[in-house]
Amino acid sequence: MSLAPYHIGLETLNQEVAEANLALQGVLPSWLTGMLLRTGPAKFEVGEQSYRHWFDGLAMLYQFWFKENQIRYTNRFLQSGSYLDALETGRIYRGEFGTSPQRSLLTQLLTMFIDRPLTDNGNVNVTAIADQVVAVTETPTPVAFDPTTLQTLGNFEYADDLAGQVTTAHPHFDFKRNQIISYQIQFGRRSAYAIYSIEAGTKQRSLFTQIPVQQPAYMHSFPISEKYIILVECPLTVNPLRLATIRFHKTPFIENYRWHPEQGTRFHIIDRENGNLVNTCEGDPFFAFHYVNAFEQDGSLVVDASSYPDASIIHDFYLENLRSGTETSHKGQLNRYYVPLQGKSVRAEPLSDALVEFPRIHYKRCNGQPYQFVYGGNSQQSHNFIDQLVKVDVKTGAIKSWQQQSCYPGEPVFVAAPNASAEDEGVILSLVLDASQRKTFLLVLEAQSFEEIARAEVPHIIPFGFHGQFFEDITEPMSNHHLHR
Ligand code: CO
Hints:
single chain, 485 residues, Neuraminidase, 6-stranded antiparallel beta sheet, 7% helix, globular, binds cobalt (II) ion
């Protein structure tokens, strides 16, 4: 089997490093103090068994602590229930996105009626709820950890019992209303999307509204505008009874879903004042993990997304396919959707040929508002892995880019300068694998020019991960207003 040049970014990292001072090339802005916290899959084998999908690996936490032109680095496994069960049994014990526990026939018979817990392998994103920093995946069981030591503190306990088996690892934070907005999907004979809010500083999910659904869609994230919550149902859907019993059967989570292009992609618009479903409208089928932003314009909503023509990208992300460098079937691109508040049809328009995956914006200033700049990853060649960072001006289509030979960058996190006057005044932080040097480095770009100002080499290869957040203030106890999104 041939191997992709970036396959070393998809192998297990076992090494944990504490408080390493990274050698810095270049100079950091003097205002840049705080902590970049990231998570990602890092352990792809347990005993003799292997996880199958990029989204499955056991989570590692990464901390980059910025202070006075220095970067201190720590990484540590998240001691989730999934991780501890795997270590204890020497097997893949809990099912993940694309992997089911592999059991012998005897074990299957013996454990058929044992209710295995859902995964809590928080390898997708880092966020904050009340005073806790948590690592999250797509089940409603965040894992809390100490941001300074990366020590795992255990499953986060909500102060309510809102039902639901699946959620998003991309909750929103509304800085005006001072609340988290998210949803859970409730599978059963009557399935529903349950949208909830959490007032800052509390652990109480308050049910905002429920939207009944017959065949729930796989939804990785959702956009909000100032007045509306938008749930976008790509036609990758599941018979809910298959998932209601997922703990007992052998098909991995995502393989229960089917692609139904004839349904198109549906947009549900929910009024944030009263929870009313204002409109449901439909456009051509597409698939997206990530919505960049949404805002109101001339009586309709504008929704920007990193779109794919179908959901085959999920198949491309099986480790076997990624490591061998199999060409991905379809390239994604940044699309804009005009979603009417009245009327039934959604119009799509490309904003850029670039993929703009792992999109980030100046969140605090622009989320839900008209905006100008999105940062993301693009693949320049062969419809393949991300090998370029791009900054797209969504008003003009102009692109700035960063790339380097044999380098594969991850999510570009935008950190605004204090009292920034321009939307793009700040820096971009991205972890980059240099495949020929066999090293990962943290890249710092000046966001306006999109040019490198500094980089710091990490003492090992960090496997490709997904998301992270920058926390501005690390000396005081964490709270939501420190979360810089
Ligand atoms: Co994501």
